[in-house]
Design goal:
- With 320 residues, the chain is α/β, with parallel strands linked by helices.
- Helices cover 37% and strands 17% of the residues.
- The chain contains 12 helices and 10 strands.
- Helix 4 crosses helix 5.
- It is globular and about 65 Å long.
């Protein structure tokens, strides 16, 4: 037992989806409180610049052991031959949708007739716009779609230059609401669902380092359960402490965590622990992505994830 306790923690290198924001609450809190170290892991976290890039970097090389990204991007990559699989899913509902002004009269796709709506070509939301509009009996010609690059979309909408904007809801809603109080309409509520943020790894990494990856996923899942059980502000402080150079607005980060909460549970996964992949969710995702032409080869949702890696753990460790 003494020899086991004396073993050096196992190193894991993790690539995140983006620069620091609320979706990283659980990983930064686990790092700050020493929960990874207590589980025998030495975890390094590298910020990203988009889920697609994270999937490409993790899936195409040996530099990283685990990726944190929007898992629909991982599914699309796997269908194209990139050997990646999900190990944990935290936001079970698709995080993309429509940002609309509060009290602006837009409650669903049918209300977009004649409106000016920002979107980003090549983004994850773009392939679903036609299906979303069709749910309200509309076509693209019934409104004015304004193409805006991803970096400028939030500012364009917040300044009132469009009536609505297609985007990632939990990230952008708190940001734009600082200047233009807004609500969100989820694609998932219009039969356009797919898993959102979670963890994934390559098949080779899972074979070689499966137990360590499982420990990491389990600690992150337990950390999310802790955060969402009234410890959101503690998680905000951890993100700020872990990433001081980002000069984050604590109110925005807290609002992002709050905005994420409704995405953590899907109808198919009712009662399931945070992080555990549920086959029915992936079956729905396959249909959503196939109908949009984003995946063409893999028809079995179970081919996209590894079951059994997320297990109950007791969080132990002191603040670092």
């Amino acid at each position: 037992m003494a020899a086991a306790c004396a073993q050096a923690p196992e190193k894991l290198k993790v690539r995140l989806d983006w620069t620091p924001w609320g979706v990283h609450a659980a990983v930064h809190l686990a790092q700050q409180k020493g929960w990874f170290n207590a589980a025998g892991l030495d975890v390094s976290l590298e910020d990203g610049n988009g889920s697609v890039t994270t999937v490409q970097l993790v899936g195409g090389g040996d530099q990283f052991d685990v990726g944190h990204a929007a898992l629909a991007s991982m599914m699309i990559a796997r269908d194209k031959g990139v050997p990646v699989k999900a190990v944990a899913v935290f936001a079970r509902l698709s995080d993309v949708g429509l940002l609309v002004p509060k009290d602006g009269g837009i409650q669903g796709p049918k209300d977009l007739k004649g409106k000016k709506v920002a979107y980003t070509a090549g983004s994850l939301e773009a392939p679903f716009i036609d299906a979303f509009l069709a749910a309200g009996g509309l076509k693209r010609s019934d409104l004015e779609l304004v193409g805006v690059d991803a970096a400028g979309k939030a500012a364009t909408y917040a300044a009132g230059r469009t009536d609505a904007a297609f985007s990632t809801i939990p990230f952008f809603l708190p940001v734009v609401s600082l200047t233009r109080p807004s609500d969100a309409i989820r694609f998932a509520d219009y039969q356009l669902n797919m898993p959102s943020f979670g963890l994934f790894a390559t098949e080779d990494k899972l074979k070689a380092r499966g137990p360590a990856i499982g420990k990491f996923a389990s600690v992150v899942a337990a950390s999310w359960a802790y955060v969402l059980n009234g410890h959101e502000d503690e998680a905000v402080e951890a993100i700020v402490a872990q990433r001081p150079q980002a000069k984050l607005d604590k109110k925005v980060v807290r609002a992002q965590i709050d905005a994420l909460r409704p995405f953590f549970q899907s109808p198919a996964a009712a009662g399931q622990p945070i992080g555990v992949p549920v086959a029915a969710d992936w079956t729905i995702a396959v249909k959503t992505l196939t109908d949009a032409g984003l995946i063409k080869s893999i028809k079995d949702g179970k081919d996209f994830f590894v079951p059994g890696l997320v297990r109950p753990v007791v969080l132990r460790g002191g603040a670092q």
